[in-house]
Amino acid sequence: MDDRSFVAGQAFILAAKNYWTREIYPALEADYRDRAAVQDAPVEVPDQVAALIGDTTLYRYYGWLERHLQRFKYSGRYGLQPYHDERREALRQRLPADLPAGLLELDPELKIPDSFTAFDIHQHPGGVWSDEIAGFVYERGARTTTPLAGQTHRDLHQRLADCIAEDGIPDRVLDMGCGFGKSTRPFWETFRDAEIHAVDISAPCLEVAAMDAADVQARNVRYRQMSAAATDYPDADFDLVTSTMLIHEMPPSEIEAVLDEAQRVLAPGGRMVHLDFLPADDAFSRFIHFGHARRNNEPYMEPLARTDLPTLLRDRGFIDIEIEPFEEAEGSLDSAYPNWRFPWVTITARRGD
Amino acid sequence: MSEQQAEQTFFEDEALDRAFGVVMALASEVYVLKDRVHALEQLLTESGVIAEGALDAEPDAAEIAERGADREAFVAHLMQNLLGTQMSRGAR
């Protein structure tokens, strides 16, 4: 596949996703609101939403497009996987053989949990961990994960770093589940004097993260292959523990283990900030989010939405617990914002003394 | 890698799920071709082979007629499917 055809094919898929986001989703929501308005009782749970619109032609196309445009994006004729497959050797050579000492530490013995290997997350063939070029595929694909953000997706991560900076610049940061380093980069770029540690279970993603950091001679970051639920850091080692889009990829038991680990490695009074997805407490938002989870191969999104996080956090001695909507792009939290979006939230807390 | 699983379905008749996939695959191919034709025209213009807009003008009657047979054949092939009749003699 030539580069031009790949770019055109992906641009077509993105344009179709954008249409779905800006036209089909608002039409679906309007149809739902019309139907809900004439019900005798308020619609309270996702199953009632399903009863109202689940069989409509519009919802069927909505679901089909959400499922299959993502399939096209990864596995279609102009998909990310075949494109990168054809360039496997060149990609392998892009990985620098001699990275600065300590920038990247891999652990070939690390066991990837069955909960993560049992399915291909995001419809990415082989997931984000099994193929040596998975990091490149994921990085390219993530540029259009939130269709309207497109190339400026980094803004989202920068916004999180900026929010954190408002409450003070940390000295030692642990970024859990850092993937290919997109969430980590604003930390090492913004907090120049801080030492940033970033862990993930995917070696192919960490390699891309380290390559990215080496390209600009970043000096204050280390990428290490380990589970966020079982790191080798000493107790009370960090004043900020963070993650971005991590916990929705974990079953409840692993989330609890991650919270335990965050509590352990945080210094007393240290901050924990997770940026993730929790649908608003209305039936339509939950119906849409749970449907997205099914169609995008993300089976732990729904359990997360049903988890009582404040209680889990309180039980572990966290204080100042706040779960707040996060404005990932200008105006996205306005009540009149019409387009589909991820239900971004920040889950923040401090370790008690 | 796990064994092959049945794809999710969204329509009452699964045939529509599959056929719409064919439609969207063709649509993406059309767009890729359109992009390539545009690039080709631009290159030809830039290298002076054709004048800018040379392909945009309405074809004259002779050219329309000359393309007629091909057009008819294309349309017939496309729409014959809607008749639902056999093109060869089937065994009864």
In a few lines, what is going on in this structure?
The complex is a heterodimer of chains A (353) and B (92). Chain A has 353 residues and is α/β, with parallel strands linked by helices. Chain A has helices spanning 3-37, 46-53, 57-75, 80-85, 88-94, 114-117, 134-142, 154-166, 185-190, 203-215, 252-265, 283-295, 301-305, 309-315; strands at residues 104-105, 172-176, 195-200, 221-225, 238-244, 266-277, 318-325, 344-351.
Could you explain the architecture of this structure?
The complex is a heterodimer of chains A (353) and B (92). Chain A is 45% helix and 15% strand. In chain A, strand 5 (238-244), helix 11 and strand 6 form a beta-alpha-beta unit. Chain A has helices at residues 3-37, 46-53, 57-75, 80-85, 88-94, 114-117, 134-142, 154-166, 185-190, 203-215, 252-265, 283-295, 301-305, 309-315; strands spanning 104-105, 172-176, 195-200, 221-225, 238-244, 266-277, 318-325, 344-351. Chain A has an eight-stranded mixed beta sheet with strand order 1-4-3-2-5-6-8-7, with helices on both faces. The radius of gyration of chain A is 21 Å and the shape is globular. Chain A is of the alpha/beta class and 353 residues long. The model of chain A has no long low-confidence stretch (mean pLDDT 95). Chain A has two domains: 3-98; 114-351, Rossmann fold (3-Layer(aba) Sandwich). Chain B has one domain. In chain B, 4% of the residues are buried. Chain B is 57% helix and 0% strand. Chain B is built from two helices and no strands. The chains are: A alpha/beta (353), B mainly alpha (92). The A-B interface holds A 4-5, 8-9, 11-13, 16, 60-61, 63-64, 67-69, 72, 76-78, 118-119, 126, 294-295 and B 1-2, 8, 10-11, 17, 20-21, 24-25, 27-29, 31-32, 35-36, 39.
